[in-house]
Amino acid sequence: MDDSKKRLTPLSELGEFGLIDKLTSDIKLKNSSTLVGIGDDAAVIKSKKDLLTLVSKDLLLEGVHFDMMYAPLKHLGYKAAVVNFSDIVAMNGKPKQLLVGIGVGAKFSVEAIEEIYFGIKTACKIYGVDFIGGDTTASASGLVISATVIGEVEQDRIVYRKGASPNDLICVSGDLGGAYIGLLILEREKQAFKANPDLQPELSEHDYVLQRQLKPEARTDIVEILAKNKIIPTSMIDVSDGLASDVKHLCKASNTGCIISEEKIPIDQETYEMSKIFNLVPSVSALNGGEDYELLFTIKQSDYEKIKEIAEISVIGYMVDASEGERFITNDNITVDLEAQGWDALKRRQSEIPDNGS
Amino acid sequence: MDDSKKRLTPLSELGEFGLIDKLTSDIKLKNSSTLVGIGDDAAVIKSKKDLLTLVSKDLLLEGVHFDMMYAPLKHLGYKAAVVNFSDIVAMNGKPKQLLVGIGVGAKFSVEAIEEIYFGIKTACKIYGVDFIGGDTTASASGLVISATVIGEVEQDRIVYRKGASPNDLICVSGDLGGAYIGLLILEREKQAFKANPDLQPELSEHDYVLQRQLKPEARTDIVEILAKNKIIPTSMIDVSDGLASDVKHLCKASNTGCIISEEKIPIDQETYEMSKIFNLVPSVSALNGGEDYELLFTIKQSDYEKIKEIAEISVIGYMVDASEGERFITNDNITVDLEAQGWDALKRRQSEIPDNGS
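Structure tokens for the assembled complex are given below, as produced in the milestone run.
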């Protein structure tokens, strides 16, 4: 069937309440703590004894956090959900409920909003999260996606950013820098497309890093692996700003310094090679790229034997006394200050991303 | 001191983390259920036994929900908080925690964002709510304020939209239509200012309706009065879309019809007189204006004796069988179908507001 010929439904045809019904009528609640989802003035949750409730929210704005030119709508919905789940995971918790508010311009069709919702619902399904609040409103400007996630964690298993001590090992899950390289490739193809709209984008060889950028995952699996191995991290954060910035968050909250070894930072082969093509030192993509949504955490040295066999986790350094500062040992064995450029959305401009390597 | 000469601080001077520190360092947590507020990946809440957790969120967008030309920033912050509190109140609950994400354009100064935060913090102080999550990001377009509120309610006191039965009395707190008339006055003065920028706005005589529009309140006091008088409504909603639309929400959720009497609708004198000046039937401001954030609820007839002495509550009609539909008895004693134009932001355009009465 040729979908491109399907008539798109203007928003005005349904109105606000009709749209909400259409988007949410197929939502089913699965978690026992979710008493009431969409449809009343507030959603209702019943917490269990000895469980703490975790809440986090994120605002994704067109032109700042994503570019509609290359971010498919269903991936945007998926990512908006998952980056929130990741915040709950970073507290060693499990995401349970999600609320999403969407602001859309008049140019949006009902089908376009359904795409975003499809992504949100898919993420909720995969992560076992109940979608309990949805609200779609007009936006006079760009697309706005505002998500709030509720999670839960056993009182004796919660992990904060604070809590690390000198000598604790610094660990990270998965690999870093891929999401940033994915963004650079998308930006490069966008510039090429602008210069010559007949050009086909060269994306097929870059599946891994593009997925890291467009459709990241929250590491709920790592939380389970840690629990199974009886490890409770002493501090934890998810890598959203970049390794350098996020390890500094742990140090600041825990009142420690740190030493990170460049050679220990896990970097995927594709990230490594594309970094070179973009004239970037690969570890810089990891340190300053951000958006990898891996877990960065510290453990007691006594837990090293438990963690060293887990393939998905790398030990990249250790905490030191705050007076020793935050340090980085390069592959040439030179020790320098750890610099965080970070993913500082207030300073960042898309145009600052190097337009290189084509 | 002449504030107008004060140098404003550009956002780039502080960066994202510096800004968050500046905005949130004076926040103190007061509710025992709030374990951790701003500063980690998620806020942490400890619910008490037999209490249900309520969650609601709202998205306020420049050019759709507010106009920067006449909405002072501190009032915007206050309103963003209070309209969320109102959703918790509408479940017969108490708001306890608030998270707010703000997207601001590059033109914004640090001081402008502090104004918004001042409004949010003031609302939190007045309502005894902890401000537990704040996030400020760049916006490529207009101002975006996204708030999420967490509240609590005893399990045996929660009130939904569903639950009303035929013969239940329909009640409303305070008075209706004022917020809409306030909006019309602000729009009128904006048009006059555009035509002649030397003109001083004529606002001083309209304090009440302007406050209803710019700085609404959530009726936590009504929830307390109801509790004190041992009344648990059978259904409840807050009046955000307009009386007609909101009573229809109760009817739909409860599977009832309703009869509303025009003569019983509480309308303030100022709303009444200004409606006439705008060539509006006063009850139409109440039925279709919205944003009054009064409580609309139903009670058993047996509770009538308890409610009739409460000055702040008016009985405006009663529920009937669904087959009888939703009906409106005019002051001329003519019965018509209750029409809901509603506050349907997807259909609404500011330009549709009558530009009248100047």
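Chain B has two domains: 13-157, 169-352. The CA atoms of residues 328 and 336 of chain B lie 5 Å apart. Further analysis is deferred to the final report.
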